[in-house]
Structures are given as structure tokens and as C-alpha cells.
């Protein structure tokens, strides 16, 4: 079988509301590039990539000369053809490779008539549990602002009732640590039997990271995720705080994983099918983590249904996945896959059973949201629409003011 064409389509899919994070915000929509890899046997495999609010169409189109004629079954060769470790110093193709790998696995699964998880060792679970992934949000049509502890708890209660979440992740790094601590404690108080995790995207100073970590030691924590920047920073927090530490920022490749094994800084590694260059490298990394008794979880860098399917197939095959996965998915108003958004039941999403990734594009939805992208364009993921001129520093000292209710026009 041979690849004959690669198509890339940028879509903008509306979020319920703008999501605030330490570097800025998702401005009320996700911009994602959908990839279709077509083969001479008529199979079309699907991939997806983010890109910080920007289109990656041109980058995928530029790969066609490299991949035309390539057999999608040859996945190891694919890695060296477009992202070998030294050539990639110049062109950073890891995330592009990931999307092409998803599509090739989708093609292989369709050709063999098996779901992708069966190509990765076979499923050990039929559904993947997810955390609620709570964001501070600006108000948007039909959705009030989320800024105060009461607003956050109300939002979490609604998500818990709608989707069954029993693990809650607070994305922080937006407001001063004391305010976010108050919010985190309010969640713990509201849901005493549930588990919690906090992730300020590494923007706390070491002193604040230590202070925050110590302050939550008595709560029902899964882990404290990237409280400060860097393996050395995490190691310094880990020495003095009795909460497991997790990272999705500084263990995102095998070199860094080796460092973390040799001198442990993070207890839990969040595997991201895009950041690591595909589903298969995540499975390999999970094996290393299993050997060295590091925890693993599934990271979300924002996803529509295609990327979500990669996370589900990954989660399905990892015996050592003892933490709920993260997903932004329930923050979306819609999806581009046939049948509409995959549903949560009891806080989990079923692993697709159809051949390949098990999801297909809804052509009408793709057309509609490609048009929305043309209308609205990209957005600066690392800027905050409510704070013109502001940009993030690490560690951050210039947090948003939690006492001020603010409206943004996008
Ligand atoms: Mg994180």
C-alpha cells in the first residue's frame, strides 16, 4: 500500500467560553488542522494537530513529497523519514509526525479490520476515565464567567452531574496563588470523596510552588502538576512537599524521560500523543515508566474527535494507567466527527471499536468549521484578550486580578 495524497483542513470549532490559562487563553474556539492521508487502495486515514491557535496546513502540504509512495505500515521508517532526531533540530516536525502516525495507524486498522488499540497490544480496558478539567473562563453566550471559588464549584458540580466526573483538575496559573488555593480547597470541600489535581503550567516561583504544595498536602490529591518550571525545579519541590508531582512540560521525550529515571523529579508522566510524536512513542514511554515505577496519565493539548480517539486507544492499552485522563473535550460546543461528540458516561468515554481510529469526519461539519476558520482566522494562544500588552513570564508575578469581573470581545 502506498500514500498517494495528504490533505489538510483547518477548522475552528467553538468552545463554550474562552478558557484562561497561564500563558493567555483559548479565545472561544479551538483551531485544529485535520489531516487526511489517502492511499492507493482507497483507505483514508485521519490525523489532527493543534498549533497554538494557528493553522498547520502548509506544513502538512510540504510533507507530501516526503511521503508520496510511502507504505503506511512502515511506521518506524516514517519516523526517520520526516523526524529523525538530528534533522528535526532544524524543522521540529515531531507534532507533524504525530498526526501522520495517527493517520497511518488509522489506515492500517481499516485495512486489517481491527481497531488501532489492537495494533498496540490490545485493549486492557473498554473505556477511559477522564478528569473534569476545570478552567477559569471569561463569560460567553449562555455561559457565565468562572473566576471565583463559588463560580468554579458551581461549574464543577454541573460537569460532575452531566458527565459523572469523580476526578477534578484545576487549570491555574491565571490568578495569584492564594486565590487559586482558595478555589482548589473549595473543590475539595465540595467533593470530599473525589480526587483532585492542580496545574499552574509551571508559572509559580519555587517559593510559591513549595507554599502551594505544602498547603494541599492534606487533600485528596492525585498529584501536583508542573507547579514550577524545569526538572530541577520539580525536584526541589518534590524534596520538600509530600504530594506526587506530575509533568507534561519537561518530560516530553525519551532523553528527558531518561533524566527523570536517573534523578527523579516527577512521579507521574503525562503522555501526550502529539507532543511525543504519536501514539506508539507514548506506549513505549509507558513501558519505561512501568519498569521504573513512574505513574502515567494521558495529557490533553486540546482535541477534537480525531485526536480524542488517539487518546482513547492509548488509554485502552496501558495496563499501568491508574490515573484519569485529561481532556478539553467537554469544553467544546461541537465536534467534526460523524455522530457528534463522543459521550461521557460515568466520567469515562468508551474506546471506539470500529476499524482504525474508529471515527470518521462529518463532511458537513468540517465544511462549516473550515468556513468559520476562514471567517475568524487563528488566535494568539499565548495572549490574554482581557489583558492587552501582557505576556507570560516564568515564574509569573503579574497575575490577573481575581476581584475584577471582566468581559472580553473576541
Ligand atoms: Mg499540564
Automatic annotation (TrEMBL):
<comment type="pathway">
    <text>Carbohydrate acid metabolism; D-glucarate degradation; 2,5-dioxopentanoate from D-glucarate: step 1/2.</text>
</comment>
<dbReference type="InterPro" id="IPR029017">
    <property type="entry name" value="Enolase-like_N"/>
</dbReference>
<dbReference type="InterPro" id="IPR029065">
    <property type="entry name" value="Enolase_C-like"/>
</dbReference>
<dbReference type="InterPro" id="IPR034593">
    <property type="entry name" value="DgoD-like"/>
</dbReference>
<dbReference type="InterPro" id="IPR013341">
    <property type="entry name" value="Mandelate_racemase_N_dom"/>
</dbReference>
<feature type="domain" description="Mandelate racemase/muconate lactonizing enzyme C-terminal">
    <location>
        <begin position="149"/>
        <end position="244"/>
    </location>
</feature>
<dbReference type="Pfam" id="PF13378">
    <property type="entry name" value="MR_MLE_C"/>
</dbReference>
<dbReference type="InterPro" id="IPR013342">
    <property type="entry name" value="Mandelate_racemase_C"/>
</dbReference>
<dbReference type="InterPro" id="IPR036849">
    <property type="entry name" value="Enolase-like_C_sf"/>
</dbReference>
<protein>
    <recommendedName>
        <fullName>glucarate dehydratase</fullName>
        <ecNumber>4.2.1.40</ecNumber>
    </recommendedName>
</protein>
<dbReference type="GO" id="GO:0008872">
    <property type="term" value="F:glucarate dehydratase activity"/>
</dbReference>
<dbReference type="Pfam" id="PF02746">
    <property type="entry name" value="MR_MLE_N"/>
</dbReference>
Amino acid at each position: 500500500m502506498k500514500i498517494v495524497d495528504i490533505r489538510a483542513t483547518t477548522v475552528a470549532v467553538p468552545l463554550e467560553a474562552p478558557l484562561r490559562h497561564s500563558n493567555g487563553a483559548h479565545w472561544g474556539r479551538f483551531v485544529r488542522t485535520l489531516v487526511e492521508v489517502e492511499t492507493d487502495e482507497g483507505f483514508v486515514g485521519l490525523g489532527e494537530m493543534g498549533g497554538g491557535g494557528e493553522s498547520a496546513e502548509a506544513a502538512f502540504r510540504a510533507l507530501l513529497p516526503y511521503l508520496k509512495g510511502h507504505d503506511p505500515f512502515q511506521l518506524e521508517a516514517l519516523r526517520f523519514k520526516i523526524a529523525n532526531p538530528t534533522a528535526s533540530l532544524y524543522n521540529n516536525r515531531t507534532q507533524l509526525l504525530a498526526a501522520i502516525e495517527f493517520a497511518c495507524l488509522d489506515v492500517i486498522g481499516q485495512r486489517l479490520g481491527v481497531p488501532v488499540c489492537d495494533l498496540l497490544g490490545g485493549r486492557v480496558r473498554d473505556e477511559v476515565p477522564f478528569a473534569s478539567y476545570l478552567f477559569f473562563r471569561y463569560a460567553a453566550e449562555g455561559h457565565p464567567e468562572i473566576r471565583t471559588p463559588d463560580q468554579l464549584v458551581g461549574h464543577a458540580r454541573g460537569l460532575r452531574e452531566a458527565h459523572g466526573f469523580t476526578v477534578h483538575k484545576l487549570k491555574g496559573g491565571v490568578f495569584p496563588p492564594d486565590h487559586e488555593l482558595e478555589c482548589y480547597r473549595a473543590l475539595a470541600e465540595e467533593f470530599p470523596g473525589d480526587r483532585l489535581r492542580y496545574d499552574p503550567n509551571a508559572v509559580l516561583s519555587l517559593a510559591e510552588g513549595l507554599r502551594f504544595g505544602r498547603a494541599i498536602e492534606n487533600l485528596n490529591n492525585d498529584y501536583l502538576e508542573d507547579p514550577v518550571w524545569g526538572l530541577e525545579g520539580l525536584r526541589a519541590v518534590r524534596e520538600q512537599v509530600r504530594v506526587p508531582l506530575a509533568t507534561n512540560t519537561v518530560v516530553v521525550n525519551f532523553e528527558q524521560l531518561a533524566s527523570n529515571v536517573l534523578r527523579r523529579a516527577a512521579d507521574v508522566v503525562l503522555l501526550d500523543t502529539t507532543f511525543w510524536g504519536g501514539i506508539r512513542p507514548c506506549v513505549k514511554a509507558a513501558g519505561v515508566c512501568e519498569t521504573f515505577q513512574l505513574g502515567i496519565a494521558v495529557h490533553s493539548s486540546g482535541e477534537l474527535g480525531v485526536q480524542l480517539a488517539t487518546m482513547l486507544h492509548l488509554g485502552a492499552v496501558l495496563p499501568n494507567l491508574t490515573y484519569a485522563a485529561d481532556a478539553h473535550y467537554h469544553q467544546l460546543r461541537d465536534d467534526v466527527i460523524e455522530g457528534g461528540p463522543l459521550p461521557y458516561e460515568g466520567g469515562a468515554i468508551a474506546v471506539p471499536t470500529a476499524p482504525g481510529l474508529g471515527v470518521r469526519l462529518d463532511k458537513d461539519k468540517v465544511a462549516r468549521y473550515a468556513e468559520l476558520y476562514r471567517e475568524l482566522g487563528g488566535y494568539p494562544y499565548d495572549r490574554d484578550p482581557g489583558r492587552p500588552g501582557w505576556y507570560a513570564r516564568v515564574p509569573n508575578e503579574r497575575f490577573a486580578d481575581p476581584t475584577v469581573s471582566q468581559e472580553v470581545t473576541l
